[in-house]
Amino acid sequence: MMTIQQMTRHITERQHFKSIQDYEDFTKAFLDFVESGLQARIVCQNEVNYQFFQYKEDCAFNISRPINTDLFGSAESFEKSLTIFHDVLKILKRRKLPNASTRQVFNSVVYTLQQSIGVALDALPASSANQAKKINGDLFERLVRLLMTGVGIDCSTGVVQVPITDSAGNVLHRINYQHDLIARKDGQIKFLGSVKTSSKDRIDKIFVDKLLYSRFTGNDTPYIAVFLNDVQRAKSTTFGKQKVNSTFLAGHFKAYTLKLTSMDGVFYCDLRPNMRSDPFLAEHIHGIDHLFYDDVRKFGV
Predict the structure, then answer these.
(1) Closest Cα to residue 124, out of 32, 8, 41, 27?
(2) Fewest CB atoms within 10 Å of the CB: 161, 210, 289, 294?
(3) Per-residue pLDDT averaged across 194-206, rounded?
(4) Which residues contact 81 (CB under 8 A, 6 or more apart)?
(5) Which of 80, 76, 97 is nearest to 88 (CA)?
(6) Closest to 110 in 3D by CA, of 156, 55, 150, 152
(7) CA angle 144, 221, 164 (to 5 degrees)
(8) Domain range annotation of the chain
């Protein structure tokens, strides 16, 4: 069994994650580790479906980010879910619709694949927090692109040049836009997207990027956003009693949607409760299964 130190070193070498299989192999190793390698599992005080993993003395008793136990698999359940997950990818690649009962399994597997990386990185010293955050974000972007290619979508990251023209149509200059997701079919861009682990401090930019791109190009290329979650460990806690805070700004999201532009899809692996209960949010925000099961057809890829 790999030690947590071996796992964190493995993650920092991004070339170890080139395929979905690489993510699966790491997740299996991490889930095996947590079966017996933790100091404790701490149940969240204000949302009991969340837990925190506490590492042992060799990791300074670090406490992890919150983990949604409704989604995060055990070693045994994850192995069983992978069989269904692989079947789902094959069905989606044929542009068929998998059985609705598999949606929760799909969400759970994707969440567990990425959250295993994030939680493992929480074992690093506080001085490595910024590096860990960057690695976690990069690997989530890569995972979403790998899932796209896994279901037969021509998807990459890169720069799209946007020509700026005068009233006569003459190109005055060009602006380069970096996108996490560029999905094409027959050489034509079908949709663009942003992939972030959280909308915290980023929600404004995503709406502005979509608005400016559509204004500059004069076309309605769909623009989507994919997030892992919007929950974090509360900073003000007493020893042994951990709570979570939401980082999702519902008021900002509604205002930008109503007054700036409406995103063509916003998808989460771990939906916040108000994204289900609030009619406006529920209309505009869906689980990540909705992107792969439903919207890729709508986007024509």
Answers:
(1) 8
(2) 161
(3) 95
(4) 73, 105, 108, 109, 112
(5) 97
(6) 150
(7) 115
(8) 4-149, 154-298
Report the alpha-carbon distance of residue 149 to residue 130 in Å, rounded.
29
Query: Can you tell me the distance from the alpha carbon of 70 to that of 68, in angstroms, rounded to the nearest whole number?
Result: 5
Q: What is the pLDDT of residues 11-54, one digit of tens each?
A: 999 899 999 999 999 999 999 999 999 999 999 999 999 999 99
- Which band of pLDDT confidence, cut at 50, 70 and 90, is reported for residue 164? confident
Quote the tokens at residue 12: 């920092």
As a three-state string, the secondary structure of the chain is CCCHHHHHHHHHCHHHCCCHHHHHHHHHHHHHHHHHCCCEEEECCCCCCEEEEECCHHHCCCECCCEECCCCCCHHHHHHHHHHHHHHHHHHHCCCCCCHHHHHHHHHHHHHHHHHHHHHHCCCCHHHHHHHHHHHHHHHHHHHHHHHHHCCCEEEEEEEEEEEECCCCCEEEEEEEEEEEEEEECCEEEEEEEEECCCCCCHHHHHHHHHHHHHHHCCCCCEEEEECCCEEECCCCECCECCEEECCCHHHHHHHHHHCCCCCEEEECCCCCHHHHCHHHHHHEEEHHHHHHHHHHHCCC
CB 243 within 8 A of CB 45: yes
Closest alpha carbon to 67 in 233, 225, 196, 195: 233
For 212, counting Cβ atoms within 10 Å of its Cβ (0-12 exposed, 13-18 middle, 19+ buried), the class is middle
103-137 confidence digits (pLDDT tens): 999 999 999 999 999 999 999 999 999 999 999 99
